[in-house]
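Q: I'm writing up a methods section and want to include an example of the input and output format. Could you take the sequence below and give the corresponding predicted structure tokens, formatted cleanly so I can copy it straight into the document?
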Amino acid sequence: MTAVFFRANLFHAPGHSAGQTTDIERIDDAMIAVEDGMITAVMPPDDPARRDIDKAAVTDR
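A: Here is the clean output for your methods example:
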């Protein structure tokens, strides 16, 4: 399966269901992975996995 990645500034509530509003954090320049129409990962800029994805994107151009 292939993931599509988006970059965005967003508000994220890790581990919460839709409608819950506690512990919301702001992530500037987040990378969002989407597979089959569902968000499968939200990575802040300092996430080690994201560095690998950013490097691959530059290499593939």
